[in-house]
Amino acid sequence: MPQRKTVFVYGYEPSGHSIAARALSQYISENRKPLFINLSAIYPSIGPLLASAYFKLVQKTPALWGYFYDSRYLSAAHKNLRAIIPGIFFNRLKKILSDRDIDLVISTHAFASLMVSRMHIGLSHIRRACIITDIYPHSFWDDKADAYFAPCKFSEKILKQRFSQEKVFCFGMPVRKEFTETRKEEFQLKKNGVPVFLITGGNRGFMSLEEIKKAFLKTGKKAHLNVMCAENERIRRGANQIGNLTFSYIPYRQDPSYLYASCDCVIGKPGGLTIFETAAFEKPFIAHSPLPGQEERNLSYLVKSQKCFFAKDNGELYALIELFYKNRKAFSLRAQRLASLSKPSAAAEIMRKLDCRD
Fold first, then answer.
1. Tell me: the pLDDT tens digits for 174-204?
2. Which domains does the chain have, with CATH numbers?
3. pLDDT band at 73 (very low <50, low <70, confident <90, very high)
4. Quick one: three-class SS letters along 214-271?
5. Quick one: which of 294, 353, 358, 256 has its CA closest to 141?
6. Closest residue by Cα to residue 354 from 55, 191, 127, 170
7. N or C: which end of the chain has fewer CB within 10 A?
8. Residues 281, 261: contact at Cβ < 8 Å?
9. What is the pLDDT of residue 209?
């Protein structure tokens, strides 16, 4: 009997999309062999170009991207990829899938879901599943897939308005096993009683780290900041101490769960995986510097449901940091509400539903 195979498809890595794929793969059954397709690696000429265009767009014209993000008219045009992308790109993907006896494609990225859709590469015998990695699901996902997995009830409601209800499921956001296990390192990382803040979102330079530093310095309080900066050399060259602030600059890690476990509060951009990884450890979250589009819509839901704090500028961040030192109970309450989103068994349940786990 030939071995059944599952392939995970996403746009680039490291990214929340690739992390979600890895989280799901941790629960795959032994009779399946997972494969990973990073579109930026397969298409080195077009992948970085598209990524660069996106990052320039959100930096230079955020309002324009905010409009693009969920326009139904642009979504329809976006799905007609064959009009703008040469057929050779689709043929390469089709060959990869057909040569390896794939019977299930799991997309954790909207553009990737379209690249491997039946509409563009055929292979109708292969099942397609879409894992939504943001709270607010935009309209750019493949609408011909066999299953859609929502990270929360809010997302599920939106998806059921767009797709057949029997295709939509809600098991939660897939997070890595490490985020569902007790971390022994937690107490080893405390900085002599000084509050520890985890700063996320600096990987590509979108996080306003200098503004965050100013807000902390204005309070005059002691704090240690663990800054997740991946390969961002500009951030990594920062000072290790300024006044009452000390810093650690954390390069990309396969398992950052210990950083969440050991912190007292997370400050970052409200990306889907960041939200749910914070929720997994029941930590309070201060949203800062949200990108237009998906992150702004994620934030809208979180603020309305009082699951996080939001600092829209330096003055509000200063006030929230002051509040943290004066009223931990208020932060604990938000952390509990955010933690209600966490479903530790999400990845396992999704893979079981797709018949990928024994």
1. 999 999 876 555 555 566 789 999 999 755 5
2. 4-175+345-353 (3.40.50), 178-339 (3.40.50.2000)
3. very low
4. HHHHHHCCCEEEEEECCCCHHHHCCCCEECCEEEEEECCCCCCHHHHHHCCEEEECCC
5. 294
6. 127
7. N
8. yes
9. 83
Query: How far is residue 54 from each of residues 44, 60, 344, measured CA to CA in Å?
Result: 16, 10, 32
- For residues 203 and 230, the answer to whether their CB atoms sit within 8 Å is yes
Q: How far apart are CA 35 and CA 101, in angstroms?
A: 11
Tokens describing residue 68: 């693009």
Q: Is a pLDDT exceeding 80 seen at residue 80?
A: no
Check whether the bond before 174 is cis (ω within 30° of 0): no
Rg (CA), the chain: 21
Residue 142 pLDDT greater than 80, yes or no: yes
Answer whether 0.90 is exceeded by the pTM: no
Query: What pLDDT digit, counting tens, does each position of 201-244 carry?
Result: 755 545 688 899 999 999 999 999 999 875 655 666 667 889 99
Asked whether 256 and 98 are in contact (CB, 8 A), the reply is: no
Report d(CA 123, CA 239) in Å as an integer.
53
Q: Are 201 and 174 in contact (CB under 8 A)?
A: no
| pLDDT, tens only, 313-353 | 999 999 999 999 999 999 999 999 999 999 999 999 999 99
Query: Is 8 in contact with 25 (CB distance < 8 Å)?
Result: yes
b/e map 121-145, b = 16+ CB within 10 Å: bebeebbbbbbbbbbbbbbbbbbeb
**Residue 311, beta-bridge partner list:** 288
Adjacency order of strands within the sheet including 223-228: 241-242, 245-250, 223-228, 196-199, 265-268, 285-288, 309-311
Two tokens, residue 286: 């201060």
